[in-house]
Amino acid sequence: MKLDSYWLDTAPPLLSACEGPVDGQADVLVIGGGFTGLSAAQALGKRGAAVTVVDAGRIGGGASGRNGGQVNTGVAQDFVALVAQLGVERASACYRAFSDAVDTVERLIREENIDCNYVANGKLKLASKPHHLAHLEKTAEMIRREVDTDIELIGRERIRSEVQSDSFHGGLLQRHGGQMHMGKFTVGLADAAVRRGAKLYENAAVSAIVKDGSGYRVTTARGEVRAKQVLIATGPSRHGPFGWYRRRIAPIGSFIVVTEPLPPALLQQVLPKQRAYTTTRLMHNYFRVTPDSRLLFGGRARFTASEQPSDAKSGRILRDGLVAMFPQLASARIDYCWGGLVDMSADRLPHAGQHDGVYFSMGYSGHGTQMSTHMGQVMADVMDGHDEQNPWRETEWPAIPGHTGKPWFLPLVGTYYRIKDIFY
Ligand SMILES: Cc1cc2nc3c(=O)[nH]c(=O)nc-3n(C[C@H](O)[C@H](O)[C@H](O)COP(=O)(O)OP(=O)(O)OC[C@H]3O[C@@H](n4cnc5c(N)ncnc54)[C@H](O)[C@@H]3O)c2cc1C
């Protein structure tokens, strides 16, 4: 078993990153080479800006290359709860922003000719308990009435035509959305940014940002660069001078296992529609079939950071979960196991704008493959003076109470969720 991301391991190599020191002058310095940063570099380059992207590690080596492979519409949190929190109008605007984000991914794939196995077959949210179906029914009614008619409630009697498992009592299908190979999308987006003139540097962690005249001087592990504007696209960064952001983000580990390639007939029987799937538990699972017929199965598993021994432990929990859900796959070998950090905000909404003159976009809370890509494009507009394009501009972003930058509270939150899940 490889303790590595399947997406990164099976992606084509990135040949367009720069050798040599980071130096000189840029119109925009983007910190972070995930989907937010790469998408912003593509959009800014298209406008003629000289863009430099620096990443602390490998381009796409953060959440963008380590996720569940789903490109879903709909907000991270439950729509009924969001309406209660923000009112119908704002909640619907958030939902529409996620739908626009799926469109952005599809447009970029088309425009930049990115070969990433994109399939638009929607997401099915599966009710793990009988009363969860009643809640999905209420949610479906509200979503259909307010914001999206392209959804369907699948009752108990039909759920086995979607998923061959005893674990589910029905589900909510949102058709707008899909899935793709995240490693191929990363490399395709990075190459597109380079074609638009961007320079990409790996292993160039930023350690300081200093105001310098009308611009900024940014120190990286590979040298110093001056830039007129800076975009922070670091997700739940553990490096560098980003304490203000760290106090607003809880870096929560999420873990994934991927089986060996399985007989297509077996997968066709288990998951005939091959959609993106999530479950309704608080400690939920998500799964899908990969382009080469493996089952990818992920979940929170444990409230802890992601590092190799912890990933392996989480992998064993996930494997047990997979077999409990799909006993037909009990003999499937696990070929990959890895983890990544989700940039969870307290309100589970993205946050983007400007702080101390520096631009930022993050806080996608586990629903960011589409939104980070979208926000990269949006931030190019915002940095060009079009703040009105930012769907999150009116969202307050206070620090998480008691969060000093180190997530000491995660084990407590994990225990709380595990207990709550029993009664939920
Ligand atoms: C296990 C897992 C499963 C997920 N599944 C899904 C899913 O199925 N669907 C979905 O929509 N979303 C999912 N997500 C979330 C989604 O992957 C992210 O929201 C999205 O990729 C965020 O992109 P980003 O560019 O903002 O951040 P990242 O991809 O994390 O990129 C940030 C980059 O910044 C770099 N960086 C950090 N600090 C510094 C520094 N000081 N200097 C330079 N560079 C720095 C990092 O090295 C990293 O490469 C998942 C996330 C995880 C972890």
Q: How far apart are the first and last residues' alpha carbons, in Å?
A: 34 Å
Strand content: 15-25%
Dominant shape:
globular
The main β sheet shows up as: 8 strands, mixed
Averaged pLDDT: 93
Q: What are the low-pLDDT stretches, counting only 5+ consecutive residues below 50?
A: none
Radius of gyration: 21 Å
CATH topology, anyone? FAD/NAD(P)-binding domain
Return the structural class.
Answer: alpha/beta
Element pattern in H and E: HEHEEHHEHEEEHEEEEHEHEEEHEEEHH
Oligomer: single chain
Bound molecules: flavin-adenine dinucleotide
Number of helices: 11
**Which percent bin holds the helix content?**
25-40%
Which CATH architecture is right? 3-Layer(bba) Sandwich
What features would you describe in this structure?
- With 424 residues, the protein is of the alpha/beta class.
- The protein contains 11 helices and 18 strands.
- The strands form 3 sheets. Strands 1, 2, 8, 9, 10, 11, 17 and 18 form an 8-stranded mixed beta sheet that branches. An 8-stranded mixed beta sheet has the order 5-6-4-13-14-15-12-16. A two-stranded antiparallel ribbon has the order 3-7.
- The protein binds flavin-adenine dinucleotide.
- Residues 31-37, 54-57, 61-64, 66-70, 72, 205-206, 233-235, 237, 239-240, 254, 256, 286, 298, 340-342, 362, 364, 366-370, 372 line the site of flavin-adenine dinucleotide.
Q: Descriptors for this entry?
A:
alpha/beta; eight-stranded mixed sheet; binds flavin-adenine dinucleotide; FAD/NAD(P)-binding domain; 424 residues; globular
